């Protein structure tokens, strides 16, 4: 029987090693204890406590409203559940863009108060100073390029990014910068597959794609989307592995019916 202490934890070095060996890296989001327990137990290497919690947990239209306190709340629950995966926590909008001192303070709060293993933030050269400062405190940093949802009001649309060569070249430069300063990985969101391939071949760190094609070193999806809990969100890049929306709806309907008909609880379910 395996015990807790026998489980080999995934580290940033493990991810580097997986890239070197050509073994793909499986990543998913989680925001609470029960889901994280399932996701970790099923064997993904990275669990991202994404600021997508703003959408799927809090019901906001964008990721902008979520706070550092909210992220810490979600990450604490995830960290308690996880015994193997690397837990990466998103720095939310407004917690690192102002200046590098504020960025470091936010990252330290997240690491200290949640017990997460690393932070992720969005952007390239414009946040380089913040990234370097966070790294200098010994905190592992993951980058995020392409469609960066915290900049949705600048983009004006969730359409594919970097289709034109100018933006593509800039994205490659930013990826190289993230590699050079010491980030341990980079998420590439909603960019052409060919560009993701060029980035993956240009950097030594693992690239993790979402809507970025098959050539990335790993893949990530929002767990509620891939489990089919959300019905409304159907981008081309999403593969649904379950239809939990129907399963859960049927279960709740049946429960309601049983309560109303006094079928539940029965004698065996009573004391
Ligand atoms: O917040 C999030 O879930 C993310 C992933 C989509 C990469 O950043």
UniProtKB/TrEMBL annotation:
Record field: transmembrane: none
Chain positions recorded as Mg(2+) binding sites: 51, 90, 122
Pfam families on file: Pantoate_transf (PF02548)
Keyword Cytoplasm: yes
GO CC list: cytoplasm
Domain of life of the source: Bacteria
Subcellular location: Cytoplasm
Names of the cofactor(s): Mg(2+)
Enzyme Commission designation: 2.1.2.11
Active site per database record: 189
GO biological process, one term: methylation
Substrates-to-products reaction catalysed: (6R)-5,10-methylene-5,6,7,8-tetrahydrofolate + 3-methyl-2-oxobutanoate + H2O = 2-dehydropantoate + (6S)-5,6,7,8-tetrahydrofolate
Pathway: Cofactor biosynthesis; (R)-pantothenate biosynthesis; (R)-pantoate from 3-methyl-2-oxobutanoate: step 1/2
Assigned keywords, A-Z: Cytoplasm, Magnesium, Metal-binding, Methyltransferase, Pantothenate biosynthesis, Transferase
Residues that bind 3-methyl-2-oxobutanoate: 51-52, 90, 120
Keyword Transferase appears in the UniProt entry: yes
Function: Catalyzes the reversible reaction in which hydroxymethyl group from 5,10-methylenetetrahydrofolate is transferred onto alpha-ketoisovalerate to form ketopantoate.
Family: Belongs to the PanB family.
Subunit structure comment from the entry: Homodecamer; pentamer of dimers.
Protein name: 3-methyl-2-oxobutanoate hydroxymethyltransferase
Species this protein is from: Emticicia agri
The encoding gene: panB
């Amino acid at each position: 029987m395996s015990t807790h202490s026998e489980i080999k934890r995934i580290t940033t070095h493990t991810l580097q090693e997986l890239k070197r060996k050509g073994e793909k890296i499986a990543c998913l989001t989680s925001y609470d204890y029960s889901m994280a327990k399932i996701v970790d137990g099923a064997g993904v290497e990275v669990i991202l406590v994404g600021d997508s919690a703003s959408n799927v947990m809090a019901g906001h239209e964008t990721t902008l409203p979520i706070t550092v306190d909210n992220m810490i709340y979600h990450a604490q629950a995830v960290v308690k559940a996880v015994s193997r995966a690397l837990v990466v926590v998103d720095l939310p909008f407004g917690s690192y863009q102002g200046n590098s001192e504020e960025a470091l303070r936010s990252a330290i709060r997240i690491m200290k108060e949640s017990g997460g293993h690393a932070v992720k933030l969005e952007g390239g050269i414009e946040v380089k100073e913040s990234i370097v400062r966070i790294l200098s405190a010994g905190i592992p940093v993951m980058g995020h390029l392409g469609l960066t949802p915290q900049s949705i009001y600048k983009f004006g649309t969730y359409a594919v990014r970097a289709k034109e060569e100018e933006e593509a070249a800039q994205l490659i430069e930013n990826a190289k910068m993230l590699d050079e300063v010491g980030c341990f990985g980079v998420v590439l969101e909603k960019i052409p597959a060919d560009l993701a391939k060029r980035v993956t071949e240009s950097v030594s760190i693992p690239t993790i794609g979402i809507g970025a094609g098959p050539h990335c070193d790993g893949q990530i999806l929002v767990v509620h989307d891939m489990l089919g809990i959300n019905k409304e969100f159907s981008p081309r890049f999403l593969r649904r592995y379950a239809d939990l929306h129907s399963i859960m709806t049927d279960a709740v309907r049946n429960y309601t019916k049983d309560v109303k008909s006094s079928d539940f609880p029965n004698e065996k379910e009573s004391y």
